[in-house]
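Sanity check

After download, print the first record. It should look like this:
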Amino acid sequence: MNHQRELTELTEAGLLRRRRVAGSPCGVEMIVDGRPVLSFASNDYLGLATDPRLVDALAEGARAWGVGAGASHFLGGHFEPHQQLEERLAAFVGAERALLFSTGYMANIGIVPALAGRGDVIFADKLNHASLIDAVRLANAFSHRYPHGDLGVLEGQLAANRGKRRLILTDAVFSMDGDLAPLPELLELAERHDTWLVADDAHGFGVLGPQGRGSLARFGLAPTGRLLMMGTLGKAAGVAGAFAAGDAEVIEWLEQTARTAIFTTAAPPALSCTLLASVDLVEAADDRRAHLRALIARLRAGLAPVAARKGWRLPPSDTAIQPLIIGGNRETLAVAEALLARGIWAPAIRPPTVPEGAARLRISLSAAHGEAQVDRLVDALAEAAP
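Expected structure tokens:
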């Protein structure tokens, strides 16, 4: 197949993606495409990805359990560290049970079709992550998208659309905007309309709530009853993987029916050993979370006048994800390249990941950043083209 014309069209529209090659471990100071950069591109929100304690835990886990699981969880690949990690995660987020998945993407495309299918109805926020969008497609249920965070429209949809089972599906922290879903209000709607609520907390787990227990805990909620939580373990937790957490009955149902949990080789048990150590570090990381909150406030205070002067937008976000909306694709790429020329990496995000006319820099802060590094980014943006 010849796709050259389509690739040319992507290039001309400023939409061609490019993978940059990191020549050093994940961190705030990296080697990218052969040159040193200050990185604001990572979801390693607590700076744990290279923490020596986790490196040691992985090495010790590999020595004890090898480097592979050898089989799926049901066919001999479920090891003691897997079981211990599921129990630890459930206790940490206040759920009866948890179920491991290899990635957040696999978790979402496994969870949603297991909970909703033909004859059921799914209600999804329009700005949900791609994995949730694909999960809805796989579910083969009736689906309705509601405008981002619009509870009034959602309530109207719930009242007008019946089904055998119904499911509200939302990011907890939206990955391109950094804002939080109104989880208490969504749960109230779910309870009033006899509907499941699934919250993807990929970007809240480890960062938000008491001891980093996540977005639900930030609102005083826990994954119980009709509320199911998905959390990822490759962002703030610094390692890899994902989990679903909720009441024992729904997790048992997922264990029996979620295809991405059943029909895949289990992750190496050494990763679970590492994640057991990671959850302990996350729980004890209040100082890192406080530092991260201070960096967020510093960045926003510095960027506000820069954005106003250049006609850019800095939407409200008190999370580690700070979008700087520039608008046009080429203009956004030009700013990203101008930053890179100054040794700063902040990725340009363009459609279809974000809406047309809303291309942006997605600035990700980490507890590993320092104040001077945040100031350097602000100064560089003030000087950057156009």
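If your output differs, re-run the checksum step. Summary of this record's structure: The longest helix spans residues 286-310.
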